[in-house]
Structures are given as C-alpha cells and as structure tokens.
Amino acid sequence: KTYEPIKQYPHFITFFFLSFSWKVQHLSEKLLYLELLKKREDSLEKQKVELNNQKSTLLKNFVYAKRKMTEEEEQFTREVTEFNNEYGLTSNRDLLIKNKVKTEINDLEKEAALLKSEMESMEHKNVQLNALQLQKNELKQDLFALQSKLQELEKVFREAKEITKDLEAEKVQVTEKPQTDPECLRLKKELENCKDDHWENVCETFQTEIEILQM
Questions:
Q1: What is the pLDDT of residues 82-103, one digit of tens each?
Q2: Which of 26, 52, 91, 194 supports an S-S bond with 203, CB 3.0-4.6 Å?
Q3: What is the pTM of this model?
Q4: 3-state secondary structure the chain
C-alpha cells in the first residue's frame, strides 16, 4: 500500500504534462490570431482615416458645387434678363430659366446620389471595423483566462514536484528500514536462532512481525 501512490503518480504527471502542453499550444494560437487581428485593425484604422478624409473632401466639394451652382444660376438669370430686355425676348425668358434650372438640378441630384453612395460605403466599413473590435475584445478576455489557467497549472506542477520528492524520500526510507531499524535486526537474529521444531510457532510469529515492519 505504501508504494501504490508512487506507482500511480507517474500517470498523473504524464496526464498533467499533456494537458499543460495543449494549453500552451492553444495559448500560442490565440496570441498569433490576436496579432493578426491587430494588424488587420491597424490597416482598417488607416482605411478609416482615409475614408474620413475623403468624406470631408466630398462634403467640401458638395458645398462648393452647390454654392457655385447658385452663383452661376443667379448670373445666368441676370444675363438672360438683360438679354431679353435688350432684344425684347421677355416671353422666352421663363422657359429658358426653367430649362437651365432643370439641368442644374439634375446635375446636383446626380452628384448628391454619388456622395450618398460613398458615405453608405464608408458606414458599412465602419460597421465591419466595430465588429472586428468586438472580436478583439473577446479574444483578449480568452487570453486573460488562459493566462490565469496557465498560472494555476504552474502552481500544480510545482506542488507535484514537491510531492514526488517527498514520495521518493519515503521510498528510500522504507527500503532501508529493515537494514537499519534495531527492532528488525533483533527479530531477524532471534529468528535465525529458531532451529528446532519446538520454536517453530515462535519463529513464524517473528517472521510475521518482520513482514509487518517491512510494509
């Protein structure tokens, strides 16, 4: 019974090292994936900055185009009015103005639609970036949990080494006991003196006591 823990413990050590190796490999894979996500996040951040810059430029262009259109429309209206007044073509003035305004409105609507499409595209990329950030946070939590588990495994490993050391010392002590224990030596000597049949029962008793001490 004394040797049973010693025989069984190597299986526990083997299982422990296999589990520990798997945890370390899993942690390494998580760290690698987290690093890839970090690079991907940096790339998307750069794209986001570029998109924001493009958005700002487009908005400026839109405002400028709208203001320019208004100025041109006002200039055109003045020129048409002056021309009609000069040549007596007042009857055609309203039609010319309407056609000019209609053309300008169509151009402006096309430009606004293009700007809206580009802004929706940027919003979609921002959604992807937010999803990636959420996934990164989840992986960080998994990493912290694995690091905590790794610390626990290291603690168990240290305790296992101490237990193994104590068991080895106990094994040596138990093995050497029959050769060093005074009581064992005394019983062995008395047992050797039991030669005749009259002392047979006494010898058997001594033999039993020696076996008990050797356990």
A1: 766 666 555 555 666 677 778 8
A2: 194
A3: 0.33
A4: CCCHHHHHHHHHHHHHHHHHHHHHHHHHHHHHHHHHHHHHHHHHHHHHHHHHHHHHHHHHHHHHHHHHHHHHHHHHHHHHHHHHHHHCCHHHHHHHHHHHHHHHHHHHHHHHHHHHHHHHHHHHHHHHHHHHHHHHHHHHHHHHHHHHHHHHHHHHHHHHHHHHHHHHHHHHHHHHHHHHCHHHHHHHHHHHCCCCHHHHHHHHHHHHHHHHHHC
